[in-house]
Amino acid sequence: MIEVINKIYYVGVNDRNKERFEGLWPLPNGISYNSFLIVDKKVCLVDTVEVDFFVQFMEKLHDVLGDRKIDYLVINHMEPDHSGSLALIKKYYPDIQIVGNKKTFGMMEGFYNLKGSVEVTTGSVLNLGEHVLRFILTPMVHWPETMMTVCTDQKGTTSVFSGDAFGSYGALNGGIIDSEIDMDAFHLETTRYYSNIVGKYGVPVQSALKKLSTLKIDYICSTHGPVWHEQIARIITLYDRLSRYDTDKGIVICYGTMYGNTERMAEIIARSASQNGIKNIVMYNICKTDHSYILRDVFRFNGLIVGAPTYNAGLYHEMDVLLAELANKNIKNHYLGWFGSHCWASKAVARIKEWNDNRLHFTPVGTPVDMTQGLSPETVVQCEALGKAMADQLNSLHC
Hints:
Elements lengths: L1 E4 L2 E3 L2 E3 L4 E2 L3 E2 L4 E3 L2 E4 L3 E4 L7 H12 L6 E3 L5 H4 L2 H7 L4 E4 L1 H11 L5 E2 L5 E3 L3 E7 L9 E7 L4 E4 L22 H15 L3 H11 L6 E3 L10 H12 L4 E8 L5 H15 L5 E5 L5 H10 E11 L2 E2 L1 H12 L6 E8 L5 H13 L2 E2 L4 E4 L4 H21 L2
Parallel strand pairs: 8-9, 9-10, 10-11, 15-16, 17-18, 17-19, 19-21, 21-22, 21-23
Antiparallel strand pairs: 1-2, 2-7, 3-6, 4-5, 7-8, 12-13, 13-14, 14-15, 19-20
Helix pairs in contact: 5-9, 6-7, 8-12, 10-11
């Protein structure tokens, strides 16, 4: 058994086989489904795990409890990777009381045909004995029913069970708490997780952070990734910055290319930006790199330059997809430059402008470059000017 905090046990599992989270986002290092068991006069289970891991989950529960019953099950978030074992848990522990909010219970009936037992709202209290639970509703971080459970024990230690908030991709390789882990592998994965899963909901995240701001928090127990303890200030600061769309100085250059001509434009733009003082430049071929990583870096850096060929009298398909994904995240405070290429009919450059005018609403920078067929000396000059314009814009913000 793994006791992570005073009489709070880790009973989560690792999934090293799933290739894509939510069927979308790559998991090269797997992912954990975290669940916690509070053992007191009353026993409380906080969240469950994906149903595929139920046998392993039950073994962990039995390892801690033996034949003792579980009194309460708190569901902070109804996504099936956390609530998936709920119906089976109810069969093994038929007297368990399920704790959630009104929207939790509505979803629970829809997913599992189960009814809730103890309805809570912000400020509700549940006393387990030496541990007292208080509940904070955090709607749209990142589902409408999401909430957090604040647990304070008799020693004054406060743990926040935060649902998907403060989560990370990556399985837990032995260590559970950040102090037990080399966290370098998790820092970018935490940002990628935020950008992919929570990134659309900056305003609700800010609201949740405000609700937590009055607490002296000792542990944050998310449903994915490490338990935060030594690095609580770091993860809260990260969430604050990301949810305010506060970025570092840098440029993400994304391009589609069929025969390499558009890629050559991107290389010239990147070189020009570098020569004009930008050190953080990342480049992505949008057909080769999963968009998950591109989204992560767009959340990190304030400059974005995109380019693609005209294709079938429209915009190259993968660029259309990427721009739709970016628009869906409601990203703010960014600067955009763009370029394109065509053989006989120019559409790509105009289509990118339409995306920005109608959906993205980023601040345009420089003059868009539209190349006909292949590179010419004039096109090279235009690409260099676009890279310099973005560099000048970013440099002016970070004098």
